[in-house]
Structure to design on (564 residues):
């Protein structure tokens, strides 16, 4: 076979590859994050505003129609009640207590859930033994734990925290386990070929790869923690410790519907705010990973 | 840089006498791999022997199902042979897949840097080497981009930079350009040539594209399908730089294709 040299072609001219790189880069998906922050904020806010208006309108209609008018106040009376309560120290003190319990309880749940999740995902016999138990705990309504917790800890903050942890930790653990399980095998292969072993494989590959599933677990864990906390504050009423649950319970005792509804609005708003934080974290990860599809 | 290739005609290295003093970079001796057990067992590789001297670019070619990828996994140590011996030189082995397999949570530079970190390099050195490697694959200035912000060809360049970052003696490539368009593939062939010329890198390159194999390889090894067996080897005496559309490449590719067709015909009958 003749070993003749092919004639020099223009693609061997220096700079050809650079030009192609540039051409390729035009083909690469571009970031469409140029929309102004204000525009995006408006895009997210107007549906919420509309939803609130619809709820208020329906509520006002029910009020005007006269259904249970004596005990069920309209939006005007309720919102003015809320406004007055916001001027007093008591509501803020209650919010502070509840928020503190939520933060401590959820933080402990995340810590415990993450440790259990890491161990279970790593150690095979433990997985067989504990894996289904975690899923079982997740489906168990955490309010069922209160008699147990009250007998164990008495009418204390510990009892509430205990139930928050039992409510939220299984979700957190399951999120991490799912993330570890669904680490793409190809990435694992690539990591192993790179020389990542054991701890470094965990730290640089498996943990970051399981981040989206872990955040999903956190989100779900938070929802359970918040529910457990509210149930706990209604059941475990500690003297001289005003919390949202205590205020709600007092309203029930005094048949103060306007105040009760106002507190529910506060609880709703707090829950939505925290959920929005998790959604932002989720969105940031998705954007970083390029999982947002066309948007 | 032109590499000298001794064999011009079809040779059977299995019967060739061992060359004294020459240490192969990769050596497979009578390797078989069976997946599964009993009646559902599949013999992916059957008694494959292959020697790759250091610095040689060997292309493995065959129809799908010939166990090409299995062979690479065995050399990589990701799988163990059912019987026979696999020797990969005892040095570092890097692997490039058909998909870039980049880590989506890291930037292009971060992906390359992680390979350097796995080797235990210090921070300053990592930064410097990352920049050099991205320059090498013509991605200067793209280090801060995330994989999803790059085109397919650019992602594969990052994967190549990451494989080079491992400073391996043996580079295994499993159809790394299979998913790219012809033009991008062509340029990456040139770049691979240029990169290999500067290093003592032993490459095992799997492809089902005969022209690509002849364009790139010092040697083309043809495997039969189901089970995979080495049926022919062709030295590629064509001087570099080569072009995939040049007459000598096309001529040898036609020979290899004929041999493959013959094998597939035998298979079908």
């Amino acid at each position: 076979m003749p070993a003749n040299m092919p004639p020099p072609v223009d693609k061997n001219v220096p700079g050809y590859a650079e030009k192609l790189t540039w051409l390729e880069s035009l083909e690469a998906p571009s970031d469409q994050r140029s929309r102004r922050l204000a525009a995006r904020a408006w895009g997210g806010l107007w549906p919420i505003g509309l939803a609130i208006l619809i709820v208020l309108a329906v509520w006002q209609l029910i009020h005007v129609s006269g259904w249970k008018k004596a005990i069920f106040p309209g939006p005007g009376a309720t919102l003015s009640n809320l406004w007055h309560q916001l001027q007093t120290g008591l509501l803020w003190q209650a919010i502070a207590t509840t928020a503190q319990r939520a933060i401590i309880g959820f933080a402990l749940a995340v810590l415990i859930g993450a440790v259990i999740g890491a161990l279970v995902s790593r150690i095979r016999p433990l997985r067989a033994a504990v894996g289904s138990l975690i899923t079982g705990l997740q489906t168990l309504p955490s309010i069922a734990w209160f008699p147990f917790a009250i007998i164990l800890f008495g009418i204390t903050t510990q009892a509430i925290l205990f139930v928050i942890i039992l409510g939220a930790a299984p979700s957190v653990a399951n999120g991490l386990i799912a993330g570890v399980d669904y680490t793409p095998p190809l990435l694992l292969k690539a990591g192993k070929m790179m020389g990542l072993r054991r701890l470094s494989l965990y730290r640089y590959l498996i943990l970051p790869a399981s981040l989206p599933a872990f955040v999903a677990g956190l989100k779900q864990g938070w929802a359970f923690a918040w529910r457990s906390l509210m149930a706990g504050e209604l059941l475990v009423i500690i003297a001289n410790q005003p919390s949202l649950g205590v205020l709600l319970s007092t309203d029930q005792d005094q048949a103060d519907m306007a105040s009760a509804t106002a507190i529910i609005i506060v609880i709703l708003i707090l829950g939505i705010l925290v959920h929005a934080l998790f959604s932002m974290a989720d969105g940031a990860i998705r954007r970083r990973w390029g999982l947002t599809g066309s948007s | 840089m032109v590499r000298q290739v001794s064999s011009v005609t079809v040779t059977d290295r299995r019967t060739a006498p061992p060359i004294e003093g020459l240490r192969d970079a990769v050596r497979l001796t009578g390797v078989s791999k069976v997946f599964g057990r009993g009646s559902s067992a599949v013999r992916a590789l059957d008694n494959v022997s292959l020697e790759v001297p250091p610095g040689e670019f060997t292309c493995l070619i065959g129809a799908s199902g010939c166990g090409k990828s299995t062979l690479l996994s065995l050399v990589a140590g990701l799988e163990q042979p059912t019987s026979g011996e696999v020797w990969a030189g005892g040095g570092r082995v890097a692997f490039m897949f058909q998909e870039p397999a980049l880590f989506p949570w890291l930037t292009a530079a971060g992906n390359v840097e992680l390979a350097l970190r796995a080797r235990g390099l210090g921070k300053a050195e990592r930064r410097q080497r990352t920049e050099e490697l991205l320059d090498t694959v013509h991605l200067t200035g793209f280090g801060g981009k995330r994989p999803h912000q790059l085109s397919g060809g650019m992602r594969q360049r990052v994967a190549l930079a990451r494989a080079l970052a491992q400073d391996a003696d043996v580079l295994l490539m499993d159809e790394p350009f299979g998913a790219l368009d012809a033009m991008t593939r062509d340029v990456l062939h040139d770049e691979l040539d240029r990169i290999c010329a500067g290093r003592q890198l032993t490459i095992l390159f799997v492809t089902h594209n005969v022209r690509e194999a002849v364009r790139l390889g010092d040697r083309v090894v043809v495997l039969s399908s189901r089970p995979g067996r080495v049926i022919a080897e062709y030295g590629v005496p064509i001087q570099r730089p080569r072009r995939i559309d040049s007459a000598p490449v096309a001529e040898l590719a036609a020979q290899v294709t004929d041999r493959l067709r013959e094998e597939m015909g035998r298979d079908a009958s």
